[in-house]
Amino acid sequence: IEEISSRDLATQEAIDLLDRELDALNHTMEEVTGTVEKLTGLRTNLAEKYDHRLAQRDRLVAERNLLNERRAALAAEREFLDRLISSFEGLGEGVRNAVKAPCLAGRVNGVLADLVSADPEYLPALEAALEGSLGYIVVDSPEAARAGASHLAENQIGRAVLICADGADTPEPAPMPGPDDGILGPVVGFAQVEEKYQPL
């Protein structure tokens, strides 16, 4: 009986030891599970931030490309206007004097070259088509055009052509050959200009 009691006591001690080890293992498992959940949440959060930053980068790249295209277009326009200024040196003095004339204060919309533009690939065609008129001064009324012309003539301070869109009629477009003939269309169809200046 004593031997059985001794074995029973030893067995109980072994069971108690195993229970304590199991409790410790359960506690460790809970800690590991909590850590895994935290890491999973952190990974999800980082993945969301990564996707957000990637989308931001794509938007910035697209904006940069648009800005580069715009910069190229502006550079082409600037080159075009530089050539235009050189080609109108003979009229430069008259144009400057007319624009500064007191009788035209607040009545000048700009020169035609400032009011019309086109995509870079069409600028040479526009320049060739409008070469004789891009230096014309656009004013707000026929009266302003007459006043400016009189001012230049009376003071003998140069020449300039003054025009206005008021009352001008937009001509009917002439029939054009089709694209099969290698013609894209009339130059005016590729010009970029405000609606109020289209009659010019």
UniProtKB/TrEMBL annotation:
Record-level GO BP terms: chromosome organization
Key words of the record: Coiled coil
GO MF terms held by the record: ATP binding
Coiled coil stretches, renumbered: 15-77
Domain SMC hinge: 108-199
A Gene Ontology cellular-component term: chromosome
Protein name as it appears in the record: SMC hinge domain-containing protein
Organism: marine sediment metagenome
Lineage: unclassified sequences, metagenomes, ecological metagenomes
